[in-house]
Amino acid sequence: MISEFYQSLDRQVQALFEGEHDLICAMSNFSALLNDQLTDLNWVGFYLMKEGQLVLGPFQGKVACSRIAVGKGVCGTAVAEDKTQRVENVHEFDGHIACDAASNSEIVVPVRQDGKVIAVLDIDSPKFARFDETDQIGLETLVASFEKCVFA
């Protein structure tokens, strides 16, 4: 069940992206919305699949890694496994890529078009175990609404 907080955010996502089909524009506003509405974050943004690797897309936060191989780090694992990755302590994640040493937990949600992963939403926090099941369900719901609006 999606929490009231994420239900409210979902309504905002649907209103914000209704009729918006430019992916970069939508990703830019989506990352800004999440950065504004979620607490205890130090990075939120997207990596897009390009030529078999993840390439940095729109984001809010400090300078980030430019490219990530599929299967590497939390983002690359999300693509390889085609499922959300929720990591309570990134320092214990085998192969974690430390773009910002202040990050301690991370959640990565695949973004799909026609059933294929075309990007990932990546959110980092300086707080250990920042993301729980409620966040995962909520963020997956927001990404699904984003996909429906932008790829319609």
From TrEMBL:
PANTHER family: FREE METHIONINE-R-SULFOXIDE REDUCTASE, GAF/PUTATIVE CYTOSKELETAL PROTEIN. This is GAF domain-containing protein. Gene3D superfamilies: 3.30.450.40. Pfam families: GAF_2. Belongs to the free Met sulfoxide reductase family. It comes from the Bacteria. Residues 44-144 form the GAF domain. InterPro entries: GAF (IPR003018), GAF-like_dom_sf (IPR029016), Phosphatase_reg/MetRdx (IPR051330). It comes from Shewanella avicenniae.
